[in-house]
Amino acid sequence: MDAHAPGFRKRGGGGMSTPSDQPQRDRFITELERNFSVVASAGSGKTRAITDRIVTLARHEHARDWLPALVVVTYTNRAAAEMQQRARQSIIEADVSPEVLAAFNRAFFGTIHSLCMRLLRQHGHHLGLPGQLEHLDESNDAALWTEFLQQHATLGGTLDATPRRALLRLASARKLMELGRRGSVPESAPPPGPFPAFDFGEIHAFAPDKRSLATVARSREALARWEAAWPGDGFVGPLPPCESKPLRPAWEAAVAPLRAWVQSAALHVAAETARSYRAFRLEHGAMTYSDQVALAAALLREPDAARRIRAKNYRVILDEAQDTDPSQFDVLLEIARPPEATGAWLDDSGAPPRAGHFCMVGDFQQSIYGGRADLGHYLHIHEKLRDSGAGDELKFSVTFRLDEAGLAWINTAFPALLHGSERQVSFVPLNPRPTVLPGQVVRLDLGDLPELPRGTEASLRGADASSATVRRTPRPATVEADPADEASAAQPRTGASAPRGTADSSGLADAKDWEKAVWEADRLAAWLHAQGLEKLRASSWSEVALLCPRTLWLPVLRAALHRAGLKAQVQSERAIKGDSAAYAWFTALVVTLAEPRNGYEIVGVLREVFGHSDQELADFAQGDGTRFHLTGPTTRPGPVAVTLAALTALRSRLAGRPLFSAVEEMVRATRLRERLLVLPESAREGLVAELEALLTQAATAEAGDATLESFADELRASFTSTREVRATIRDAVQIISGHKAKGSEWDAVIVPFFARLVVVRTPSYPRVVRDPRTRDFLAALDGDDIDAELKAACEQRDRQELERVLYVALTRARHTLVLADDRALFSGKSGLPKNAQARLLRCALGDIHAASFEALPTTLSASPATHAAQAAKAASRAAAQVVPALDACASPALATARERAAFFIKRNPSALAEAASAEADPAAAPRPLATTPNAGARYGTWWHGFVEHLDWRADAAAWDAVFAAALATSPDAELARREWALLRDQLTNGSDFARRLTAPGLIARAEMPFLWAMNDRECLEGIIDLAVFDPAAGSWLILDWKTNRKSSAELPELHAHYLPQLSAYWQAVTAMLGAPVTVGLYATAPGTWLPYEPALLAAAWADLSQHPAAIAQALAPDEPS
Question: Domain spans of the chain?
């Protein structure tokens, strides 16, 4: 390619080609005192740009102050960990000082929910939040919701009596409550206006034609019954629907005022219910993900809390900004504003984010999560930053992913889809990287459709029966084998299904949707196998991906690839732990052994794990479900009785055993590994590894004193949790949805089912709808609350999102993009199905891209240039990853290590003082901490944070500056001033204490973690408040800050109380470093340094080490008081 082509520019005088958008990238990387909104197109290297900006921060003279305040928010924890690792490696390569690296290690990398939890832990007392809250899965809140309904006596209590009575006559209380359950309503909604007068005279006066006489009459009769009931006092219900299309305009005009009032009142009540339910959850120690964000946003509306939070000078970098919802944006924008800011910046009533304190990177074209994000809000913030001068817009248009052919196809096809009008986003043309490869885009012609002889339906269905999926039901161990049914579950069916074994059509054009899918999947799999990697320009089969817009389409592809002799792996973003047979069966067995009278679970185990038929189970029970138990022998004959007897005997053998030993024997006795291995190949991938992980989880639980019963509860509670992303299986073709593919890339991407109907799920009611035209919230109690215009706007929004999902899918391929031309297969009498990808891309017959689509090459070809580039990349990667060879670890050693994990005990020195006191006097054992942090605890946390920032090599003026900056966030400013004055006097009076901290040449480390192996079974873990090394003397000083409210007379008691904890610090550091160690407390209240004599420390440790049981009684960290 010519060096003067778009996408190329020369840098400097050396002639090195750089991306054409390099000036934009340079601004983002180097201008640290500017805010930016970066529009980063597919494959444009946004992660590298973010990393480079962080490295520039690390090289700045203020790095030690800026890096601890760095907040990098990503969409997933996995992405955050990857970005943090890349940034750390780049900073290390930049050869910065250890102090700067330590400052970087205090930066935040994580999700918005992790950030919100951090803010709530530190400042939640401003909202009166409990100190300890557990996460509640919103999809698994049935028990708590039922309890809330039982205790929630008043619905619509914020409404006046008259409108409340009118609403409850018109709307179901259950529907009103359900509206507020899921947290999708706005934080508040205004009360409705006066109840409207209504007049249905135009409806009754309507003159129908002959064809609509019957439907008009029925509609009028239903309305008349409603009108007759209204003057009474009882429940009337919603207005009836209109059955007549000609009558509908008059009907809608007449009922519109009443319907609008009901929707307004319902939204107000829903917001009230949502607030009440959140308060109820908090009272019960539970918090959902949406609660975390909403409460953090509420925290930042509290002036004092907002000032303290902003005083930390956070510098926010938001990745995947297009997936951020309005409440999440509120939190991130607010923490970046000046401490004294008031009002709301987005409403033009407050100061914007401080310069250099807010950057976001996203792509409007890849906004594909409309169900939770808000594209319009993201666009509004982008424009507000740009147009107000609070930030600058940058565009990264050079893609480092797509080759020339793929890039050209995207630039040709997508301007017609992403046209920038009717609320669709604008297309950003892609530019090539300097070293672009040729690439290929291929149209896979499936050929003529075959005739289907009678009986083909059964053979197709049977051909796919080799695959198995775990069914999601409350019973945690069910397996069924027909992913073709799963693939067709969302597809509409016309007419009754033909009986199995018969076919009522003569060709695939008339076949059912799932039959066409099975046929195409087999053709595609055979074609892939025949082409091979070289023609696909892929370095391995795991670098080949099949992308579909619906997860229900994935299993049929996996089954076809397995039949063709290719390994395949499905990555589903909706997978829960219970979808795995390993997790489901393991959990079911543990639950039945822990709950021997749980007949429901026992029947599930008998049916799904041991394979007993329903007939066998029915014959055994004879209508008596209590016969399914493991508490004793059964007198019933038959195979079910034999299995129950074996399980009963197993339970007896396990009685009294440690947890890990029990579950290991359970797995062996039930032959669980072997049962998993006989599942169809397409269903058993990774199951043995998951089983091993569950055994390791059991060993860890045993170390935490878990019992079989508590372990069963733990497994069951996590059954519907999201399944962890599985590592890519080597040489397995990846099958994945278009949504989950975002952020990934492969050498070759194939898009099957290109012309297949993409069904948009019909929403359930009641629900809260956001009008795409106005972005206003609307309460829809049923489908009739969505008028024709709003319905059309919602359908347009969904279709536009599918167009963006298609953009994401087609921009994942580095070298090869294959589009399956199945238009003839899925076309009907009216052409391509609605929302089919081929139709969205305007490839239907006669559409604007039909000719260019049909002009694409239909055969793959190898590329020597691509092969050479891949070989060079592989060699470079291999050279960078060379590590000394390690001896393989034998299986028995792994088993031993897992078993020993239960005996390797971790001690926490911070709890040793309380543990020792409890052993000496059980009555004096500390009670559990209060759920709300007290003032002393908050002050202790602040003090530790303040002194952590002191540079002990600096002078008093520098210390005063640090104190002045920290004082704004102190929960007790007067106490802070008094205790700082005492410490400052200690540091400047020339005492031995001052010399130990501030003498030239000393090396100080605040909050220094350590992990010491006490013996072959136990380790000691802790964090030392301040460790100071004297290189000249080769000695260490260990200082522990104590903010307890103690007078000088009480210091001996304080000194003795913390002796066990400090003796552990002393022993650990002495043993690890082999150097003299001085240990002491600094009591902030009297301003006194309290060192310990080595002999006293040695005696205390000798005594404490003889009483491990006492140590184990309390492992909670020491709480400042």
Answer: 20-120+317-332+347-400, 134-284, 403-467+506-572+727-880, 577-717, 905-1112
